[in-house]
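can u do me a favor
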């Protein structure tokens, strides 16, 4: 019997997700935000990559396997699995729930001691509930453990009474409420092995009869250098690997609660990064890396050493990362290109220095105006992510952001409605700033959510260079995924542009209508693999 069967990601059934968000109101910020990410084809909501599957598009090698946004081994699995194995606990995994249900069913037939459900990207209970129900159907005696950001975020926001209701709805037996959680999960599994409840295990909530028992909380920190991924434990990594070379973030942006949850910023030395990359290189299938660290290039001196090491070792990887423009220079960018970097995610957030200061960002407009053209000149794809509506936002600051896009010309951009999150630093100033409401329904002294989402719609409809990066089911790594399947960058932009044009037909409508024949013809023309230039 395996001790723990880890479940990676449940992408869910997108049409069902659309229906759920639509029930919040078609004029809600949440729905209007979502509506920019799909078209309606024969009554079915379809995202950018879904179109490839609907058209059964063969890639450059003639392969018609399903296109999706998660064709990589989920990093939570590699880190959790390595930790458990290192501590004498056995594990197995199902990477993608929707793709691997038959395999999951077979593994459940072997009656694992526990199933661990990870929640890295979930903002609603539905994906968790679906996995829990599946386990109950096929192995009712298996203990179901749920942990990750979804549990931790609600653990900070809800009372014990409301958490009881949420945990009852989700249907699991044990919940891990921790900034990390590997140690807590290991302790839960040890208790289950010994035939007892996880009584007293820190950061754990467990079902005891009809109620949940809330164990004491404590800060969990698993040293990064002692918990490297053991890639030999995984039979196939595929082409894409996501890895981290640091934990947490040394900054405290006012819109982000991550540093407070994650603890002190720590990072691997260049030598430790080298050892990690050497282990990955032993898997000949791996061609692409995504560094998932929020601040990959901080501190700058360490980053330069890592880049020079990568150049000296002549790794064949192409890679992408998050990049802080105020912690780079021309030498860094030149080294990145030589070391194989093909793209960066830039948390630009605003083109207004006034807004950047209000957000407690350390970068300024001039940093982006220097970095973006330099990155592009070196052949590095750039994506600028923006927030619209943060307290202090006005039509004037939005105009500055639009001006930055027009002047710097990143390859891609995306503007997102500010999410009024009670676990972020700005929430402590809500009275001073006049913040009322929360999540996607809010107002403050300078703007409200309705105005902000109207601005997002306008940016989507009117800015064509840079290209809007579709918001759901498509990320920056999706660009490189399509490139590995045979497209060049301009062909990817053609796909994205045609999709966005089809979506834009619905701007101003209460909800997306059926795609027009003209837009559909443009999609058919764009969604083709042609010989790279």
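np, heres the sequence
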């Amino acid at each position: 019997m395996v001790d723990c069967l880890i479940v990676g990601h449940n992408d869910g059934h997108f049409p069902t997700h659309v229906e759920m968000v639509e029930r919040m109101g078609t004029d809600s910020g949440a729905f209007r935000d979502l509506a920019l990410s799909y078209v309606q084809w024969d009554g079915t909501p379809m995202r950018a990559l879904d179109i490839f599957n609907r058209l059964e598009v063969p890639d450059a090698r003639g392969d018609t396997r399903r296109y999706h946004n998660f064709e990589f081994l989920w990093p939570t699995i590699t880190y959790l699995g390595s930790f458990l194995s290192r501590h004498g606990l056995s594990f197995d995994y199902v990477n993608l729930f929707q793709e691997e249900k038959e395999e999951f069913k077979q593994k459940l037939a072997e009656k694992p001691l526990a199933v661990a459900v990870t929640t890295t990207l979930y903002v609603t209970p539905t994906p968790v509930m679906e996995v829990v129900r599946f386990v109950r159907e096929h192995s009712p005696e298996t203990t179901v453990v749920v942990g990750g950001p979804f549990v931790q975020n609600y653990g900070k926001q809800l009372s014990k009474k409301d958490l009881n209701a949420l945990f009852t709805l989700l249907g699991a037996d044990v919940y891990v409420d921790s900034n990390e959680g590997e140690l807590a999960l290991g302790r839960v599994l040890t208790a289950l092995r010994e035939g007892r409840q996880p009584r007293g295990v820190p950061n754990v909530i467990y079902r005891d009869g009809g109620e949940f028992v809330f164990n004491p909380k404590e800060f969990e920190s698993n040293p990064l250098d002692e918990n490297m991924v053991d890639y030999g434990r995984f039979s196939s990594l595929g082409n894409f690997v996501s890895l981290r070379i640091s934990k947490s973030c040394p900054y405290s942006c006012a819109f982000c609660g991550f540093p407070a949850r994650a603890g002190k910023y720590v990072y691997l030395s260049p030598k430790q990064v080298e050892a990690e990359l050497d282990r990955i290189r032993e898997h000949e299938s791996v061609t692409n890396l995504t560094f998932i660290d929020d601040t990959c290039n901080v501190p700058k001196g360490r980053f330069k050493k890592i880049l020079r090491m990568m150049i000296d070792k002549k790794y064949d990887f192409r890679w992408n990362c998050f990049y802080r423009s105020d912690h780079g220079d021309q030498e860094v960018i030149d080294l990145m290109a030589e070391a194989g970097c093909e793209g960066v995610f830039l948390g630009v957030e605003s083109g207004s220095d006034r807004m950047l200061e209000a957000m407690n960002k350390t970068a300024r407009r001039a940093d982006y105006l220097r970095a973006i053209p330099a990155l592009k000149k070196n052949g590095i794809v750039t994506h600028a992510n923006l927030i619209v509506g943060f307290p202090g936002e006005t039509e004037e600051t939005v105009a500055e952001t639009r001006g930055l896009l027009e002047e710097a010309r990143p390859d891609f951009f995306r503007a997102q409605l500010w999410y009024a999150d009670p676990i972020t630093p700005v929430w402590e100033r809500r009275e001073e700033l006049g913040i009322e409401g929360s999540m996607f329904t809010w107002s403050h002294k300078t703007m409200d959510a309705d105005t902000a989402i109207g601005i997002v719609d306008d940016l989507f409809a009117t800015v064509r260079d840079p290209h809007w990066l579709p918001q759901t089911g498509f990320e920056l790594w999706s660009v490189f995924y399509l490139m590995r399947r045979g497209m060049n960058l301009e062909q990817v932009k053609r796909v994205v542009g045609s999709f966005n044009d089809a979506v834009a037909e619905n701007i101003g409508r209460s909800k997306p209508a059926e795609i027009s024949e003209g837009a559909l013809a443009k999609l058919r023309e764009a969604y083709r693999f042609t010989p790279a230039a």
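The mean pLDDT is 95. hope that helps!!
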